[in-house]
Design a protein that fits this description.
About 65% of the residues lie in helices and about 0% in strands. The protein is mostly helical. The chain starts with a helix and ends in a 22-residue tail after the last helix.
Length: about 325
Amino acid sequence: MDSLLLVLGLILLAVVGYDFFRTTLSGSGAGFLTRFFLTLSHKFQLSLSRIFGRKVFRLSGMLVNLTVLAAWILLIWLGLFLVFSYRPEGIVNSDGRVATAVERLYFTGYVLSTLGIGNFTPTTPLFEVLVSLFSFFGFIFFSTSMTYLISVSSAVMHKRALALSIQTIGENPAKVVKGLLEPDSSFSHQQITALQQMLDRHNVNHQAYPVLHYYNSPDISSALSVNLAVLDEATSILLHSRDQPLYQELQSLRHSLDQFLRHIREKFRHQSDVDNPDINWSEVDLPVGLLPSEVGEDPQLTERRKILGELLYSEALSWSDVYPKSALNAAKQPAS
């Protein structure tokens, strides 16, 4: 039994340690434990939003970060406690009395927090080494966590800036189309280039900090999922139009959108049965003379709308928020 506690503790420490460093230092995603707790926190937020409305999402970032931080701390604390429980006599107080289970838990906590109080001490070489090692780890853990959260905060600001930049051009696909078809073609080119650069940066941030995906906006108009769907639909309308204005510039923007949607499809599938909307572009208030060709059952357009629909679902939204008061003939709400 004692050996089992040691093995379980070391395995837990190794798994959580890998997950922590994989998430904070790799710059290429999150460990599986972090992804699990992020998903759990996100589902909890969605459940609360059905009861209290979108105002719950004001606490979105705080809930997500506290969930992950608490999970890391508690699991590391538990793992080290199990190791110290392998030989209870290895931890004694200043009078030489063997520490109780509660006292070992307390001792583990102040080792990790680097307090160094000293009213309990290790007596075996293994425990002495572990105390030194995890005192260093505690310092690294808290400093790395704060650095990571600062980087995430910067990425969150950029995510909001991207959403607002799209929303400034237009609040629905028709208005974005009109905004991009300005008489001054050089201005349109600058807008598209700026959006592409911001989208590329967000894509990099999203891959490095998956926690970004779970920051939901309480304001529908500034939700990135809605604005990305609006931008993608506007781009599709222009690329499917017979005259194909701004074709070269839009192809570059489309490529950036494709990269982001591919990343979402591979890493963040939320609801596989979200239905595609029935969108008829002939019902959209487009500029006079702009006639998008009929796309029929375009598999690429169908697939990207499916991914965008899942992205909308992840923020408790639907296609009716992209096409308000319809060009949607039979929009279906995502399943609960």
